[in-house]
């Protein structure tokens, strides 16, 4: 459903501020998706607290330079990712409304940011949480908003080529994004004839080496939609010291019609019904058994993958986009009250 565009002086001004440090980062991609959906309805400016990664060269990103007077002025400031730095420039920005999108672990980053905002005259920013799990653990009032995903990009494969059962995952290429038992699990699966593809897994080369059947790709080696459509199953769990606040990649995999097998710790678990639209596991043995079952049972893969796609369509429905626009840009003409 398309909402009417606002014109002229009716268009609110929104500043989206994050650290555009990683083209595969959750905060960065959330910011770009918000920009794309809000831009027709508001004056939306992108800001980075540091020079952005060259991979963002195609986007109109402004860099904060306080001493040049180059920083957000007026309107609504949306800070995406509590690790984003702000400074004394905020005292001179004339911001009418401040929103903090909390989507990062460890949680002290959020409290550090709230303290910095307080020192610069912002005492009661609105908080948007990436999951209800995160809101409960933080304990501060706020709303919950799923990270926006373009479902026209993340779609199931039109057809499946003849290939060995292929499972995979994608993430940033950092140790905390991988569970320490994952390499052994991958070896067991490859020994059974499964194909394993890990994008963002070059750090595992020391333990997996040139293991037959296992492909380790650098982070961002292929567009995420293309990579996901080359899989039969998506697997995801992280190190114990890292709890995924949302798990955007899990929803992207579900949107591509993949059965997902995930560790139970993470905000994504709120939207996975075990055995219906995905699987949640606690142990290595559970993960292995479910993955091998999916390898043998193509009809189960198809059934769970279809339910996964339907689940994300239910999340990102017309009401979701209307409410997102309403929250950030204000009440829109022609939209229901």
Please tell me about this protein's structure:
It is a single chain. The protein has 337 residues and is an alpha/beta fold. The chain folds into two domains: 8-148 and 316-329, Glycogen Phosphorylase B (Rossmann fold, 3-Layer(aba) Sandwich); 166-315, Glycogen Phosphorylase B (Rossmann fold). The chain has ten helices and 13 strands. The protein has helices at residues 26-38, 108-119, 132-138, 182-191, 205-208, 224-229, 248-255, 284-296, 298-315, 318-329, and strands at residues 13-18, 43-48, 61-63, 76-80, 97-102, 126-129, 143-144, 166-170, 195-199, 214-217, 233-236, 260-263, 279-281. It has a seven-stranded parallel β-sheet with strand order 3-2-1-4-5-6-7. It has a six-stranded parallel β-sheet with strand order 10-9-8-11-12-13, sandwiched between helices. The longest helix is centred in the last third of the chain and has 18 residues, at 298-315. The protein is elongated.
């Amino acid at each position: 459903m398309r909402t009417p565009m606002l014109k002229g002086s009716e268009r609110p001004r929104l500043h989206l501020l994050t650290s555009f440090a990683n083209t595969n980062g959750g905060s960065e991609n959330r910011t770009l998706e918000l920009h794309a959906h809000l831009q027709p309805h508001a004056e939306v400016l992108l800001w980075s607290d540091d020079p952005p990664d060259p991979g963002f060269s195609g986007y109109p990103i402004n860099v904060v330079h306080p001493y040049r007077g180059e920083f957000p002025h007026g309107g609504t400031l949306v800070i995406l990712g509590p690790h984003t730095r702000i400074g004394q420039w905020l005292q001179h920005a004339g911001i009418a409304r401040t929103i903090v999108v909390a989507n990062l672990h460890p949680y002290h980053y959020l409290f550090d940011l709230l303290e910095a905002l307080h020192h610069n005259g912002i005492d009661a920013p609105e908080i948007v949480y990436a999951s209800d799990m995160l809101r409960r653990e933080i304990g501060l009032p706020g709303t919950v908003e799923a990270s926006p995903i373009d479902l026209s990009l993340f779609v199931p494969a039109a057809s499946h080529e003849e290939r060995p059962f292929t499972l995979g995952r994608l993430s940033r290429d950092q140790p905390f994004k991988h569970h320490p038992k994952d390499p052994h699990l991958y070896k067991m699966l490859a020994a059974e004839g499964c194909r394993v593809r890990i994008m963002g897994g070059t750090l595992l080369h020391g333990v997996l080496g040139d293991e037959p059947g296992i492909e380790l790709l650098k982070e961002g080696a292929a567009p995420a939609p293309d990579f996901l459509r080359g899989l039969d199953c998506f697997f995801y769990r992280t190190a114990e010291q890292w709890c995924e606040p949302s798990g955007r990649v899990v929803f992207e995999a579900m949107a591509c019609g993949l059965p997902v097998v995930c560790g139970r710790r993470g905000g994504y678990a709120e939207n996975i019904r075990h055995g219906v639209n995905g699987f949640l596991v606690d142990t290595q043995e559970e993960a292995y058994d479910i993955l091998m079952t999916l390898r043998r049972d193509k009809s189960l893969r198809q059934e769970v993958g279809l339910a996964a796609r339907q689940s994300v369509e239910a999340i990102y429905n017309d009401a979701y986009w209307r409410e997102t626009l309403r929250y950030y840009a204000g009440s829109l003409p022609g939209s229901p009250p």
